[in-house]
Design a protein that fits this description.
121 residues, 7 helices
Length: 121
């Protein structure tokens, strides 16, 4: 997963998987919206989800992270930590291709936000 094409392919596979998951949910919530989920660009799907009360879901969070990763890839910034701008460890990106933080910044983030993270679950 070192080159641009491999990363893009892995992110596209993740996008297909997330769209399939959303289709399963959307058929109960808003059956008329299935075509949107199948064909719309990712940003439009993300904008649509709060309208059908799906903004507080793990799926919404995953789609947001995927969109960020795709934008970073397009800009040549993929793999850089959103906090310190150093390279994210390859093992983290292999495990989670939408990772936004290096291990050090992730620990700091979790430590600083542990109370609000605990309250939200």
């Amino acid at each position: 997963m070192h080159n641009h094409q491999d990363i893009q392919q892995k992110l596209q596979q993740l996008e297909l998987k997330l769209r399939r998951e959303l289709l399963l949910i959307i058929k109960d919530v808003s059956p008329d919206s299935a075509e949107l989920v199948k064909t719309a660009i990712l940003g439009d799907i993300i904008d649509f989800m709060p309208k059908v009360k799906l903004a507080n879901t793990e799926l919404f969070t995953q789609l947001m992270k995927l969109d960020a990763a795709l934008c970073q890839l397009e800009l040549g910034l993929y793999g850089l930590c959103s906090d310190c701008e150093m390279e994210i460890e390859m093992s983290r990106l292999i495990n989670e291709p939408t990772e936004q933080r290096c291990a050090s910044c992730q620990r700091k983030y979790m430590n600083e936000h542990r109370l609000e993270l605990r309250l939200s679950h």
